[in-house]
Structure formats: C-alpha cells, structure tokens
Amino acid sequence: MARFQILPAETKFFDWFEKGGANLLEATRLLRDLVDTYERPASKIVHITETERQGDFIVREITDLLRKTLITPLDPEETQALMHALDNVVDSIEQVADKMMLYKIEKPTDEAHEFSEIIWRCGQEINAAMPLLRESKLLPQVQKHASELNRLEREADELYRRALERLIATSRDDWFEFTRWKDIYDSLESVCDRSEDIGDVLQAVVLKNG
What's the whole-model pTM score? Predict the structure, then answer.
C-alpha cells in the first residue's frame, strides 16, 4: 500500500535513479564492446572507469538529497538500497575490466562473450525500469523487469557452470590459464548477481508502494 503523504515528495530522486540506470546501461555497453571488439583494451577500460566515477557521483548526490529532504517518494531505506545496488553493478563491471588488463588477456573466450551479452541485457532491463518508479500506477510494470533480471541471473548461473566445465577440461594442467579465467568468470557472474539484487529491490518497492 502506498504511503499517505500530506506534503509533496521530492521528485529529484527519480531523476537520479534514471541517471543511475542510464550510467549502468552505458557501463554494460562498454563492457560488451570491450569483449566483442578486443582492440586497444586499455583505452576502452578508461571509459568504463569513468562510468564508475559517475556512479560514485550519483551516490553522493542521492545521499546529500536524503539529508536535505523531509518527504521522500520512497522510504529512505529503499532509496539507499536502490542507490547502492545500482552502484554495485557498475563497480563490478569495472572489476571485470581491471582483471582483464591485470591478467593480460589476449582474447576473450566464447563464454566471456556470452556473459557480456547477458550483462548488457540486464542493463537494458534496469534502465527501462527506472522511469516507471515515478508513478504508482506504473509500478506493476516494474515487476516484469525484475522477473527478467531474475531469469537472466539463472541463465548466468548455467553459463558459469558450463564455463568452469570447459575450463577444467582445457586448462587443468595450466595453472595460470585456469586461475585467471576462473577469477574473471567469478567476476562476470558477480555482475549478474548484483543485477539480480536490483531486481529484488525493485520487487520490494512494488510490493510496498504499488
């Protein structure tokens, strides 16, 4: 049930949520481009780092707005949960990119390509859900995006298992090759897990405010 309010809520929060969704989508696009066209990776990773910094800026702006605002459109706890969930995805994407540079990856694997596509689709779902938070009548539409994020996370889990099976089959005797790709796959799966966290936050918002 939506909360009863005498005073109007501060709508700037929705602006920042939408900026956060757009920034996250850009990070997923940049990761997919990095993996699909693995040329001059260092220059591409610079742009991913820029999205991480923009994500931190959005967190600071929302936190500052929370301190100044008496009436918020979502509970402060919900606002903080969504804010940090958006930021965590972008942080996780930067970690993937950093590890690809750290391990001096020569060419992404087929599984890395599949992960980057799933992550891109997660970004699309998240970005599409953010504008729907503005109006209570639109909140039921948020549910389909949250459900799709849960489905994509399950798809990523299956991909992770296949990736490890192939890695064991092809690189069990090559410690470095096994270790670096196992670490990168862990981080790619983590991006999908963090994306599902956003879906969980969105479902809670719908349940409480729809």
Answer: 0.93
DSSP annotation of 207 reads H
* Total residues found in the chain within this entry: 210
- 1 inside domain: no
Q: What are 3-6's contacts with CB under 8 Å, separation 24+?
A: 3/75, 3/209, 5/71
Other C-beta atoms lying within 10 Å of the C-beta of residue 135: 10
Give residue 96's domain range: 12-209
Residues 87/20, Cβ–Cβ less than 8 Å: yes
Q: 99 is written with which tokens? A: 């590890």
DSSP 72: -
Q: How many distinct structural domains can be found in the chain?
A: 1
Count Cα atoms within 13 angstroms, Cβ side, for 140.
2
Specify if 4 maps to a domain.
no
Tell me: the pLDDT tens digits for 11-66? 899 999 999 999 999 999 999 999 999 999 999 999 999 999 999 999 999 999 99
Query: Rounded distance, CA 73 to CA 88, Å?
Result: 22
d(CA 116, CA 131): 24
DSSP-H helix ranges across 69-209: 76-102, 110-129, 139-171, 175-209
